[in-house]
UniProtKB/TrEMBL annotation:
Biological source species: Pseudomonas benzopyrenica
Gene3D superfamilies on file: 1.20.1050.10, Glutaredoxin
Entries under InterPro entries matching the protein: Glutathione-S-Trfase_C-like, Glutathione-S-Trfase_C_sf, Glutathione_S-Trfase, Glutathione_S-Trfase_N, Thioredoxin-like_sf
Lineage, broadest ranks: Bacteria, Pseudomonadati, Pseudomonadota, Gammaproteobacteria, Pseudomonadales
Pfam families per the UniProt record, alphabetical: GST_C_2, GST_N
Protein name: Glutathione S-transferase family protein
All residue ranges annotated as the GST N-terminal domain in the record: 1-81
Residue ranges occupied by any GST C-terminal domain in the UniProt entry: 86-207
Length: 207
């Protein structure tokens, strides 16, 4: 039985759970992280020395990093529809998974923490304004891409990239700040909302 370690309020845990649902896989989940068992404990650090969630346990195989877990699940459990085997189609999915982790995620860190988590409780106005502008700038890249190349991020079919980016866009749309106009993204999110897992992992209670 697959086991996921991490609290469901984590965006990175929700990526993995959404993928599992799309693949129709059974799993167990244990709460770890803020408010639950500490991911800094010795017990948890044996699985992930970075002290981050989630971790996937597949028998004696241990894997961390959420996007790597998505790829593993698709490769190991018949998920070619989400992660195609053809080199160019797969590279396009990888491109956007990597962009989500390396470009989009760092862009929202200060603004999201300040506006949603109130960390810090009195944010620096200049840093906050810059953070919002940077976040919107990354979103503008995705908006232009979807307007030209949609309906999904990697082409005509829903893929792992849409799981990662769909949840990131839900976070952007749920954060109380001034956002750029993004009609292609709004249409894209409406398409994602037709998938049953969207209601589970992109609800208003889980930005």
């Amino acid at each position: 039985m697959l086991k996921v370690l991490g609290r469901v309020s984590s965006i990175n845990v929700r990526k993995v759970l959404w993928c599992l649902d799309e693949l129709g896989l059974g799993y167990e989940r244990e709460d770890w992280g803020a408010g639950f068992r500490s991911a800094q404990s010795a017990d948890y650090l044996q699985w992930n020395p970075n002290g981050q969630i989630p971790v996937l346990l597949d028998g004696d195989f241990v894997l961390w990093e959420s996007n790597s877990i998505l790829r593993y699940l698709a490769n190991a459990r018949g998920g070619e529809a989400l992660y195609p085997a053809a080199p160019r189609a797969r590279a396009r999915v990888d491109q956007w998974l990597d962009w989500q982790a390396s470009e989009l995620n760092p862009a929202w860190s200060y603004a999201y923490l300040a506006l949603v988590k109130q960390q810090p409780p009195q944010p620096d106005p200049q840093r906050l304004a810059q953070g919002i502008a940077t976040w919107n700038g990354r979103i503008a890249i995705l908006e232009a891409h979807l307007a030209q190349h949609g309906p999904y991020v990697a082409g005509e079919r829903f893929s792992l990239a849409d799981i990662a980016l769909g949840l990131s866009l839900h976070r952007w749309r749920s954060t109380p700040m001034e956002r750029i106009a993004a009609p292609a993204i709004e249409a894209y999110l409406a398409r994602l909302a037709t998938r049953p897992a969207w209601a589970c992992y992109a609800s208003d209670a889980t930005p």
